Amino acid sequence: MDTAGVFDPSVGSAGSPYTVTYAWNDTLGNPLVDSVQIVVLAAPIVQIDSAGPLCENVGAQQLSASPTGGIWDGDLGAVDPSGLFNPIFGPQFSPYAVWYSITDTNGCSASDTLLIEVLTSPLPDVIEPLVLCPYDSIVQVMATPPGGSWSGDVDGQGNFDPSMGSGAYWGLYTVTDTNGCSGSSPATITVLDAIQAQLSPAGPFCADAADAFLWATPFFGTYGGAADSLGYFSPQSAGPGQHLVTYTYTCPGCCPTTDSLLLTVNPLPELQLIDSVLCADLDTAYLSATPAGGSWGGSAQSGGLVLPTQLGPGLHPVSYSYTDSSGCANVLLDSIAVRPRPSIGFTSGVPFCAFGPADTLIATPAGGIWSGGVTPEGVLTPGADTTLIITYTYGDSISCTASRDTVVQVHPLPAPLLVPAGPFCSSDTLVQLVAVPSGGTWNGAIGPGGIFDPMNAAVGGNTVAYSLTDTLGCTGVDSILVVVVDATPVVFGMNGPYCANDGQVVLTAFPPGGVWGGAAGPDGGFDTDVTPGEFLVTYFYSNGVCASEATDTITVDDCTFIRERVAEELLAFPLPADQLLTVTLREAAPISLLTWTAASGRSMEIPFVQQQDRLQLDVSGIPSGTYWVLVEQAGRRYRARVLVAH
Questions:
Q1: DSSP of 308-330
Q2: Cα 68 to Cα 44: distance, rounded to the nearest angstrom
Q3: pTM for this one?
Q4: CA distance 37 to 377
Q5: DSSP-H helix ranges across 467-571
Q6: Where are the beta strands (DSSP E) in 229-282?
Q7: Going by DSSP bridges, is the β-strand pair 509-510/61-62 parallel, antiparallel, or unpaired?
Q8: Can you state the percent helix, strand and coil of the chain, rounding each to 5?
């Protein structure tokens, strides 16, 4: 107890007496003391037994506590005084507080409090199936959330088989969550009655049959497909083939049923007349048609017999009727044509010349056969001039035939004559060749008008032809062989210059074997022990048919002084050259001028290619002979005499 007289039983021990003293002074100052004993009793020990969590749909639950005999209370009145807990407000107010209090016989009280969690229970939702018919496929009743289980008239997956028959069925879908709370939802399933529709068999029909009524039960259903709404089927409108007809019956409160029927419409026999064109010169003929076995009429007698000679040319009506195995009949109304024999005509072509090219004769109508010196196709290959009797035979598609002869003349060729000429030397000038009669055309190694150029002709035989064409277009040809002999040109070697004291030297020229003249001896000997100057020499060469002659000047110097080396002599090889001539330059600088001069002094263009310090010149296109080549390079000129010999 504190000085103010406040006693706290909780700080003491239960069952122990406590002495409490109160002291004061009276008015005279005398101290007075009084005391009392206080006993602290033990309070009851209260404990609520554990409960929850609870599912919201579990219902009322009895709570328990010790010691018994106390009074219960809680939030929102969720527990009655006896301890019956019912969370009527659901999990939205969870957790719920409940408490339990008790007073013992000593009047001491105690209480305990407990929080109870209320969990949300699953609320499955069944998606009701549509009303079903007995002929429907097995359906699965759908429900959410997934993962639940089914019971009742469905299997564990919620599958329902409408073939069980008409009636009312049920199913129950239960879902348990992870907290162990469960929820269920029922499903109702209705299977309606179905009265079967039935179509009566019908057909087959012919394609020209009248409309047919189709019977079906029960009455007052609906027709569809190839039948109209009243149940009539038209074979003519439907055409040959198979056609589907449907019949659907529906009554109030029952399922619709449908029956179908495949109707066959057979085509009418397809009739075709064969060999409807006949030749007018036939006494009798038999017509044929497909399918065989029908009956004939009109201009055709029994069995298809006709008499073309009596009917005469023109069109004549016939009929053919036939009934097939299905009883479908058809009639063909047609006509036959009686034609006269074909008329043959010839088309004139180009005249045929003896030994000329093959050509094809032409006649009308086309497609016949030729005979008498030609191929069956009418191809004539002319031989010597002659007269041919040619026959053309034509048979048309109906075997009407006719033949006709024609005369074909093969004309002789003109005979021109070329007057023989030659041989000529390759150095000869132009020559006029002669042919008779005049007015023809020259061909081969010859110019217009018969001018022959030996210089530009090939060495050896040259074929020259002369052709003459007459007024009929026939051409004759004569030809001769004109021989050209190579007149080998004289080419001098590098003769000189010489010094006055060089003594006897031998001059060179190409081709060897010729005869020297002038200041040289016949064998080319030249004596340099002469007064310095220039000396004229000649060289004559003959191959037995053609001869060549050339003149050269030999220089003899005094040579009593040191002679400056002049770079006007180029190194050229090979000599004589045939196709390519290589000239070695003094340096590798580009050239600015190249001149090629013939012995006659005429300049010529020569193709060349420079490679560093040398040139390659193409001499394959120029005549054999002696030439001068002049090259200007870096301001200097170099000159050399070269020999070309093919």
A1: HHHH-SEEEEEEEEEE-TTS-EE
A2: 11
A3: 0.37
A4: 162
A5: none
A6: 232-233, 241-249, 254-255, 257-266, 272-274, 277-279
A7: unpaired
A8: 5, 50, 45
**Which residues is 465 bridged to in the sheet?**
443, 479
- For residue range 469-510, what is the model confidence (pLDDT) as tens digits? 888 888 889 899 999 887 777 778 777 777 787 788 888 888
Beta bridge partners of 35: 21
User: What is the secondary structure of 111-160 as a DSSP string?
Assistant: EEEEEE-EEPPP--EEEPPPPB-TTSPPEE-EEESSS-EEEESS-TT-EE
> Cα 129 to the chain's mean position, in Å?
53
Task: Locate 9 and state its tokens.
Answer: 């039983």
Half-sphere exposure of 238 (CA within 13 A, CB side): 28
Q: Nearest-5° angle of CA 479, CA 483, CA 485? A: 170
Q: CA-CA distance, 574 to 638, in Å (whole number)?
A: 18
Phi/psi of residue 128, nearest 5 degrees: -60, 130
Residue in this structure with the two tokens 């300049």, named with its chain if needed: 603
Token pair, residue 88, equals 């009527």
> Both tokens of residue 471?
């007024």
User: pLDDT of 517-555, one tens digit each?
Assistant: 999 999 989 988 888 888 999 999 888 778 888 888 888
* Euclidean distance between CA atoms 415 and 591, whole angstroms: 60
CA Rg value for the chain = 70
For residue 596, the cross-strand partners are 604, 629
**CB under 8 Å to 229, separation ≥6 — which residues?**
222, 223
